[in-house]
Specification:
The chain is α/β, with parallel strands linked by helices and 259 residues long. Helices cover 46% and strands 12% of the residues. It has one domain.
Length: 259
């Protein structure tokens, strides 16, 4: 897929919540493993979600555990993850942008137009190099929202769509794509489709989550859907891509989450 210029985005899972930040003094007991890590990095003892939720120092080791089990826990798109990094306030993510002299681009501003207080749960940054797996940053807020491992996996489903898109240039569902797309529109639609994948795994029973968990995502998902729906009324490649995305979702069992 060819975009207009280099796309630099951090597509984040977002919810309408304001939670207290984590204790910055807590030291993790593990460092992130990656697709290039040696077997010595494998977690020796299994850590439950409940243990990681209750003890912040266990969260990186728990995320390492999920990463090492990504083929069993996820689908092919999960192979586009390079690592899961516990980044409580997403400060490491910010530093990565600062190092490159880039101001992070997220969809938070668009959400704030109607729903204040959005917090990023996870973020998968892309710095313009397609074809390599991407790291995903997981904030302390994600562990505040999720009440079960199924809900953490659901958040990662959302991010896997982004990772796979920039790693392989593929979308998890059939959506026609114009040859040239404005970066802002590309970011908007990629986030919309990330929600679709998350909802699809919930709808088909792959992820066991609570109704209250689903409710937290309906508002931002519907807002995104409306934005793309409005864009589809225009002319040109961006409007064409927006129409293709809306038409694709209308034929999916997840449509009810967006309407």
């Amino acid at each position: 897929m060819r975009k207009a210029g280099i796309v630099v985005v951090a597509v984040s899972t977002l919810v309408a919540l304001t939670l207290a930040s984590c204790n910055a003094g807590v030291q993790p007991t593990a460092t992130p493993v990656t697709s290039n890590s040696s077997l010595e990095s494998i977690v020796a003892e299994q850590i439950t979600f409940e243990a990681a939720k209750g003890d912040e120092s266990l969260r990186q080791a728990y995320l390492n555990q999920l990463f090492l089990q990504r083929e069993q826990l996820g689908d092919d798109s999960w192979l586009s993850f390079d690592s899961f990094i516990y980044d409580p306030k997403l400060e490491l993510l910010g530093a990565a942008y600062k190092k490159r002299g880039i101001k992070p681009t997220t969809l938070v501003q668009g959400y704030e137009e109607t729903t204040p207080g959005f917090k990023a749960l996870m973020a998968t940054p892309y710095f313009g190099v397609q074809g390599v797996p991407l790291e995903t940053h997981v904030s302390s807020t994600a562990f505040g929202i999720a009440q079960s491992q199924g809900e953490i996996l659901s958040l990662l489903d959302n991010e896997s769509s982004t990772a796979h898109l920039f790693h392989k240039g593929e979308i998890h569902m059939e959506v026609k794509q114009p040859s040239v797309i404005n970066p802002d529109m590309f970011s908007l639609i990629s986030e919309l489709l990330s929600f679709e994948k998350q909802f699809y795994n919930i709808e088909t029973g792959r992820r066991s989550v609570s109704e209250s968990f689903i409710a937290k995502f309906r508002s931002p998902a519907r807002l995104l859907y409306k934005k793309v729906e409005m864009a589809a009324l225009g002319k040109g490649p961006d409007a064409e891509f927006a129409r293709y995305a809306i038409e694709a979702i209308q034929n999916r069992p997840t449509l009810k989450y967006f309407k």
